[in-house]
Design a protein that fits this description.
The protein has 478 residues and is an all-alpha fold.
Length: 478
């Protein structure tokens, strides 16, 4: 590994993190709040970043395959530590809670240990929303032109950083790809801010919710989330942009450049929208009560379906009062997640789709042992290495989730709370069921449970293997 160059890159990322901290610093001055927490965080990130860049200069600027794992994982851990400083120094949270909140933000999970957002400084709420927005597309996405991950050039880091089992180039050069995707991301964020302002939200609320919607983070400035605004217009706007955020951003680029047919022919998109329609229909039938307006039931069902499937985690109703079937649907949606190449979490639609096709092919071979029936996607045959990687991912995802659930259960929590807390953490969703339901928080968990759940958030955001590789002895051998 080229560790000197790895630390050099991490130094630049810390300097970038310090630059972004200037926005909540300005907000603290504007709202007449103490700027010291943000100055301290800027100073810490700036000093460490400056030292790594200037006092640890690399001699060799070539990066090896394992360096990609180290830089990606190290970057998320480093920015999470810096991001925890404002929470700690404002006195809002203790050390463990501050780290939990920061990791939850950068991984776009949305789970929170903040009991009452109304008493939290506005600059801190802005920073909380910003961490999700930065984490949404990846704090290091701009480096994809220079950082290989698995040995096939920068495209492999793009695969590691843009969620999903495969990644698709938008432009011939990866640097151009990064700029294009950021342009789309920023454009959608600005469009939602305008829409929410026109719907009656304040500039601050519109900005924070735009940040956390496009990042599929779901952290709201209100204790009762988007439902606090009591506005059907706001809810439909959020539904629309959550859907956009849950769709592969490469498809957005194609749509904006007029390639409509290629977008509609995308099998994963059809599967994703099919799940949205099917789950919404089940919820409408399950939760609609006689005498209630069908439009309200449809809006509530569509909102929760899209929110949980895209792993955004906003809520408009206390779904813990729903029957068992709709709760089971929500739990399944937590696991499925958004499309590959989106800012959503979960196992991703493409993995689920290919796993189902692989299962169907396996069953066909059992009945017809001599038949040749490969798994196909987009008209092309999917290699066995991709399929084995998907099944390995699903196995690791399940095992790590069960370990997290076991830790929570060991503290005496009921089975529903333990499982949903682990699934919502590794899926980067936010709310769960039981004692981490729609309007609940994670403040009541013991310190070790919070650390484990925060680790699950990192595993989920980094697609399991990127972080899991660091625990292998072979990874650290020369």
């Amino acid at each position: 590994m080229n560790r000197r160059f790895d630390f050099y890159i991490l130094g630049w990322l810390l300097l970038l993190d310090a630059a972004f901290l200037c926005l909540p610093l300005l907000a603290s001055v504007m709202y007449r709040e103490s700027p010291l927490p943000y100055l301290a965080a800027i100073g810490f990130a700036g000093v460490v970043g400056f030292a790594l860049v200037n006092f640890y200069p690399p001699v060799d600027r070539h990066i090896r395959p394992r360096d990609g794992f180290l830089v990606v994982s190290g970057a998320w851990m480093a920015v999470s530590l810096v991001g925890a400083v404002p929470y700690l120094l404002t006195g809002a949270l203790g050390p463990v809670d501050a780290l939990f909140e920061s990791i939850s933000g950068f991984t776009t999970t949305g789970s929170t240990v903040i009991v009452d957002t109304t008493i939290v400084p506005r600059a801190l709420l802005l920073w909380r929303a910003m961490t999700q927005w930065l984490g949404g597309m990846g704090i290091i996405l701009f480096t994809i032109a220079i950082l290989p991950l698995l040995g096939i050039g920068g495209m492999q880091l793009f695969k590691a950083e843009v969620p999903g089992p495969v990644a698709d180039k938008v432009r011939p050069r990866l640097a151009a790809t990064a700029r294009t995707l950021w342009f789309v991301y920023v454009g959608f964020t600005a469009a939602e801010w305008v829409a929410l302002r026109l719907a009656g939200l304040s500039g601050f609320d519109a900005l924070c919710h735009s940040f956390t919607t496009l990042a599929t983070g779901g952290f709201s400035t209100e204790n009762t989330s988007v439902g606090a605004f009591s506005s059907a217009t706001v809810e439909w706007i959020v539904i629309f942009f959550m859907l956009l955020a849950g769709i592969n951003f490469v498809l957005h680029y194609r749509l904006l450049t007029g390639h409509i047919k290629s977008v509609w022919r995308d099998n994963e998109l059809r599967y994703f929208l099919g799940v949205v329609v099917a789950a919404t229909a089940i919820l409408v039938v399950s939760v609609h009560e006689p005498g209630a307006r069908i439009a309200d039931s449809l809006r509530d069902s569509a909102f929760q379906t899209v929110s949980i499937l895209t792993t955004t985690g906003y809520v408009t109703t206390d779904f813990e009062g729903w029957a068992t079937l709709p709760l089971l649907v929500l739990l399944c949606l937590m696991v499925l997640g958004g499309m590959s190449g989106s800012t959503g979490g979960g196992v991703k639609s493409l993995r689920a789709l290919l796993a189902v096709r692989s299962l169907r092919t396996t069953l066909h071979r059992l009945i017809h042992p001599h038949a040749v029936r490969p798994v196909k996607y987009g008209g092309a045959v999917v290699s066995e290495s991709v399929l084995s990687g998907i099944w390995a991912f699903l196995t690791a995802y399940l095992l790590i989730g069960l370990i997290g659930a076991a830790v929570v259960a060991a503290y005496g929590y009921d089975l529903l709370t333990a499982i949903s807390a682990a699934m919502t953490a590794i899926g980067n969703v936010g709310p769960g069921l039981g004692e981490v339901g729609a309007y609940d928080n994670f403040a009541h968990f013991p310190g070790l449970a919070k650390v484990v759940l925060a680790a699950l958030m990192l595993f989920g955001r980094l697609e399991i293997f990127t972080l899991l590789a660091l625990f292998s002895r072979e990874f650290w051998r020369r």
